[in-house]
Design brief:
CATH architecture of the largest domain: 3-Layer(aba) Sandwich
Distance between the termini: 56 Å
Radius of gyration: 30 Å
Number of helices: 11
CATH topology of the largest domain: D-Maltodextrin-Binding Protein, domain 2
Helix content: 40-55%
Oligomer: single chain
Shape: rod-shaped
Order of helices and strands: HHHHEHHEHEEEHEHEEEHH
Number of domains: 3
């Protein structure tokens, strides 16, 4: 038995009749005459070699075969739409590349990515946690589509001509040490635990200490925020972090200890002026919603429902 090829136009006509509740309303939606709609349904039934509607009937009633066809019709048209949208949006099949600075990566990234994947299961998403300066350089080198990094970071002599910035939040930078530290922050040389270069926090620390006439020595550096926090907790030295990175076993160093005041820091979303991936705007909006809601109510973790309401 030769199985005939279905005409999706006939499938769509059948589904429109069902959803409209009649041939007349279906004809209006399809901008056809009622007789043209009836003819399409007859051709559809001829292809299937089965009736799909009970006749005669004042209302649209499906035959048992029509009930079966209805489920397949919806899936066929949905699959057709999915295929066309994938082809019509160049690059949708390519991975959406996200780079995230340490201070966000450890706090929110895993849950944020899981929620984004549930909302956009068709998107291939790759993420990397790193240091702001390196991430921004890779953004300008077209190795990332979206980067969440410390605002105002520069690397070398390059300007941010190839990136656009949207501030997520601001917070104070604070000097920190172990909770039971034996290090006296008033004595020189000050032992420093800092991020590896390129890092804006590191440069800010040494610049401020130099201006204050303080002697310092880098005793530990790492690209990982967790490693920096562990080194401070182990009392290897003092460090500076955003207030949100303060964890148990660490304490802020008070101003009376003689360390210089630190500037405010900010976390921002960066993209290129002409995004290469069509889902770049959706990801940046999603990150902004998630971060702002999380900071507005830290006691409550973001959920899919809460992110949609925000």
């Amino acid at each position: 038995m030769r199985i005939p090829d279905l005409d999706l136009d006939l499938v769509r006509c059948f589904l429109t009749v069902v959803e409209s509740g009649g041939f007349t309303r279906a004809a209006q939606r399809l901008h056809l005459t009622q007789s043209a709609v009836s003819l399409k349904i007859q051709r559809f039934e001829a292809l299937l070699d089965r009736p799909v509607f009970i006749r005669p009937s004042r209302d649209v009633q499906l035959t048992p075969e029509g009930e079966v066809v209805l489920g397949y019709a919806r899936r066929l048209l949905a699959l057709n739409r999915e295929m066309i949208e994938s082809v019509a949006q160049p690059g949708i099949g390519a991975p959406l590349r996200l780079g995230v600075a340490q201070q966000l990566g450890q706090q929110l990234l895993p849950e944020l990515l899981a929620l984004f994947k549930r909302e956009h299961p068709q998107v291939r998403l790759s993420a990397e946690v790193g240091v702001s300066g390196s991430l921004l350089k890779q953004l300008e080198d077209d190795l990332f589509d979206v980067v969440v990094a410390t605002a105002g970071v520069k690397f070398g002599d390059r300007e941010k001509a190839c990136r656009e910035e949207s501030i997520l939040f601001r917070e104070p930078l604070i000097w920190v040490q172990a909770k039971a530290s034996k290090i006296d922050p008033r004595k020189d040389p000050l032992p420093l635990v800092v991020f590896a270069e390129p890092c804006g926090f590191r440069r800010s620390a040494v610049d401020q200490l130099d201006r204050a006439g303080r002697a310092w020595q880098i005793v530990y550096s790492s690209t990982s925020l967790g490693s920096i926090q562990a080194a401070v907790q182990a009392d290897l030295g003092v460090s500076l972090v955003g207030r949100s990175a303060l964890v148990p076993g660490m304490k802020p160093i008070p101003h009376r200890a003689g360390l210089p005041l630190l500037p405010e820091t900010a976390l921002a979303i960066y993209t290129r002026p002409s995004p290469g991936h069509p889902m770049t705007p959706a990801l940046t909006e999603f990150i902004a919603r998630a971060v702002r809601r999380q900071r507005a109510g830290k006691a409550r973790k973001p959920t899919m429902a809460s992110l949609r309401r925000s």
